[in-house]
């Protein structure tokens, strides 16, 4: 990164984020993402995920400032001293999950997920799902509302709400978490090595249809979903030292 970094400011459509965007561009100038040294995302966690999906392939670090409802992946919004904050920021490197979903129609869809990939029943009928890990069947039939695989960064979000574990950043693990499981009644999921290939096979998909969502990308009527950590894609988020992502994830485990 150059001594005075070129910043690409990106903002959610909310009035607060758009006002901040205009002020910051007036002060620091405007650069396109592919010409910038660092991306600055203004919004909430949803907008941060959009930014990573749209521009993660550029390999540019992303510094987020919270101007939205949820800001776990963001720093506090303070427009003053931005260059100094970016220079002092600590990096957090994240690898997304790669998902390949096959629908009843035979179409295959690939997508990335920085938080989680979740399968959910589409009707009142409970989903029946088989779970294979690295080609070996571990759960013959999970009867549930759904099931998900979450990254450490995403483990404090939907995964934690479904009573899944919080995973330390850099632990090289992923969480496999059922959503409202009925059978096996006592199974509460597993913590897996990050390089584990997880395959879900939907049993009786016509009577019990299932959809899959990778972050916010949904595919309906799936029959098989394969998930693995990406070997090629990695993104870098920048955080203020006093409140970095690793500390946030640790602190979440002591909230009562």
Automatic annotation (TrEMBL):
Keywords: ATP-binding, Cytoplasm, Kinase, NAD, NADP, Nucleotide-binding, Transferase. Its EC number is 2.7.1.23. GO terms for molecular function: ATP binding; metal ion binding; NAD binding; NAD+ kinase activity. The keyword ATP-binding applies. Belongs to the NAD kinase family. NCBIfam families: PRK04761.1. This is NAD kinase. It comes from Pseudoxanthomonas helianthi. The gene is nadK.
């Amino acid at each position: 990164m150059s001594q005075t970094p070129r910043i690409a400011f990106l903002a959610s459509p909310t009035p607060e984020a758009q006002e901040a965007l205009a002020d910051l561009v007036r002060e620091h100038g405007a650069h396109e993402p592919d010409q910038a040294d660092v991306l600055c995302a203004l919004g909430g966690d949803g907008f941060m995920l959009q930014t990573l999906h749209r521009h993660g392939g550029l390999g540019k670090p992303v510094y987020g400032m919270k101007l939205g409802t949820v800001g776990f992946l963001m720093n506090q919004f303070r427009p003053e001293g931005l260059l100094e904050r970016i220079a002092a920021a600590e990096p957090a490197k994240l690898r997304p999950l790669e998902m390949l979903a096959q629908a009843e129609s035979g179409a295959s869809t690939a997508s990335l997920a920085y938080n989680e990939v979740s399968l959910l029943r589409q009707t009142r009928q409970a989903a029946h799902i088989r779970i294979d890990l690295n080609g070996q069947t571990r759960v013959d039939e999970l009867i549930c509302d759904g099931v998900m695989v979450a990254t450490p960064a995403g483990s404090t979000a939907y995964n934690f709400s479904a009573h899944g574990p919080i995973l330390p950043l850099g632990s090289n693990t992923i969480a496999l978490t059922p959503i409202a499981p009925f059978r096996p009644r006592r199974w509460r999921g597993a913590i897996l090595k990050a390089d584990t290939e997880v395959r879900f096979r939907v049993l009786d998909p016509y009577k019990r249809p299932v959809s899959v969502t990778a972050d916010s990308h949904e595919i309906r009527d799936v029959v098989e979903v394969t998930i693995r950590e990406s070997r090629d894609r990695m993104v870098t988020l920048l955080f203020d030292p006093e409140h970095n992502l690793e500390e946030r994830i640790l602190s979440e485990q002591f909230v009562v």
